[in-house]
Specification:
Order of helices and strands: HEHEHEEEHEHEHHEEEEEHEEEEEH
Number of helices: 9
Mean pLDDT: 88
Helix content: 25-40%
CATH topology of the largest domain: Rossmann fold
CATH class of the largest domain: Alpha Beta
Strand order of the largest sheet: 2-1-3-6-7
Strand content: 25-35%
Number of strands: 17
Structural class: alpha/beta
Radius of gyration: 22 Å
Low-confidence stretches: 1-11
Largest sheet: 5 strands, parallel
Number of domains: 2
Distance between the termini: 71 Å
CATH superfamily of the largest domain: Response regulator
Shape: elongated
Amino acid sequence: MKLLTFERKLKHRMLNAIIIDDEPHIRQTLEKMVVGFCPNLKLVATADSVESGVNTIRKYHPDLVLLDIKMNDGTGFDLLKKLEPVDFKVIFITAYDKYAIKAFKFSAIDYLLKPVDPADLRAAAERAEKLYQKDFNTQLNTLEENLQLDASNNKKKIILKTYDNIHLVKVCDINYCESEGGYTSVNMLNGNKIMVSCTLKEYDDMLSETGFFRVHKSFLINMRHINRFEKAEGGHVVLENEIKIPVASRKRDDLLEMFEKLAASN
């Protein structure tokens, strides 16, 4: 009886999945991984191009698509535009591209690097199961916007996920980020604080090219919101809203150098 109940639960939560990739060996590898490592996925079909992918999606109405970004007849984004509004979840499959990966991270959309790791695929499939479709469309729109912007553009938007909400904020509206254990509190110019379950290092990696600087092991600041540097008490910066942030001694010279460059460019 317990086994039957478990099987019903497993069946209830399975997602119908489609693989779309123009490389046969990638499709075959992903098929094996889905069967062997993703108990919450049921593979219903595969396709090898934008055109065949669109037709396959229209035929099978999947819950999830494992989608290659670059194919012989276009991109994964071309495919999605033909199917708007998107009523399924997507995990993108991509070769490594530093700038593109940054855009994915900003948008909190799952991607898998080729060659795909089975553990990464399983984790992404489990996250997809919990993702609301409305949230995904917000993330997808954010990704498309970010991909069109220069890597250092301060007009980028970032998705911040909390336990019960998904926040879409402009990078330029972030005043500073503070480490709080395994969490990060993102502090906005308007005084709002958004607590996310990611480390400060992850946001340092994402935001460093958009004018952010980690002045202390616990603080990442938006350089554009520095009002002044005060030497007293070991040194600290004063941000918008008169927020005082300590500066680690080993970071002081680098900060002052960046501060001078920023001032010269304005």
